[in-house]
Amino acid sequence: MRPSASTGTVLATRGDSGANPGAYHLHFCVATGPSRPQYEPRETVPVSFRNYQTRGTGVFVLLWTDVAQGVPRAGQVLRRQGTLGGASINGAAIPNGFGSIAAKVTLKGPGLPAANGVITLTVMAPCGEPLRSKTLPIGGFPAGPWTTTIDNVPSHDGLTVVASYSGGWNIPTNNGTVAGKSSVIGLPADTTRNASIPLAMTEGAVIK
Known about the structure:
Number of helices: 0
Number of strands: 13
Largest sheet: 8 strands, mixed
Helix content: under 10%
Strand content: 35-45%
Order of helices and strands: EEEEEEEEEEEEE
């Protein structure tokens, strides 16, 4: 799983690579998908920071301006001081960027799973990146439904929950699969959203 940042997490250290010695700077960007070819396309998005200072320009170069919350612009010089405050603005709590999905898997058939079978639920981002996974044992409920809550899911629009089954099946699958997929879910921070996933057998080709 990808790492998650929270208040106080060190994201990067500045340096002068690719510039004149002493020209310390930082290249930073957030994108809608990981920078890996299999997750294209993606686009960069603005990032809001809290409690920092910007340095003036020209005759005001020695002056620093407090910023409670803002989006830094290219070319700005920023700094952070411990007296500028913490992770809240005007006393309001800041969403932590995660939510939960209450998943319900319903058997659509044909056939029934074995008692030792396992359903694996995976929350997928729109770009195809797996965000969170959780296993759900069949146990003594061969006809379902099976429910669980997947916590610490990154807040995002366009999420889906994919179910895949492993284990015995009481009728031949002919090398087919048993799987399912939810409809698209939007997950705001600090909320729980429901997801319904149909679990069905797809019969494979019969080899003659």
